[in-house]
Amino acid sequence: QSYRAIARAGPESLDWLDARSVDTVLLDRVHHKPLADQLELDRRWSRIYDDDRAVIFSRRSQLASPAGTVE
């Protein structure tokens, strides 16, 4: 039930990710396009990888620090 709501990018999708401290999301470009679009527009998330099949987002606070280490 939660998976379907998140995959469809329902209004609670980002709240669900927040509540569970999800820091990285791997999505299929076709099947999860609505959620990928939502994450792309959210300033808290950054696209760190994409190709013709998949896209990976990470919370900005989880990106490498200036020293090159992960926070």
Helix-strand string: HHEHEE
Strand order of the largest sheet: 1-3-2
CA-CA gap between termini: 32 Å
Structural class: alpha+beta
Summarize the structure.
With 71 residues, the protein is an alpha+beta fold. The protein is built from three helices and three strands. A hairpin with a 3-residue loop joins β2 (45-50) and β3.
Structural commentary:
The chain is α+β, with helices and mostly antiparallel strands and 71 residues long. Helix content is 31%, strand content 24%. It has three helices and three strands, in the order H-H-E-H-E-E. It has a three-stranded antiparallel sheet with strand order 1-3-2, with helices on one face. A hairpin with a 3-residue loop joins strand 2 and strand 3 (54-59). The protein starts with a helix and ends in a 12-residue tail after the last strand.
Topology:
Layout lengths: L1 H6 L5 H7 L4 E5 L4 H9 L3 E6 L3 E6 L12
Antiparallel strand pairs: 1-3, 2-3
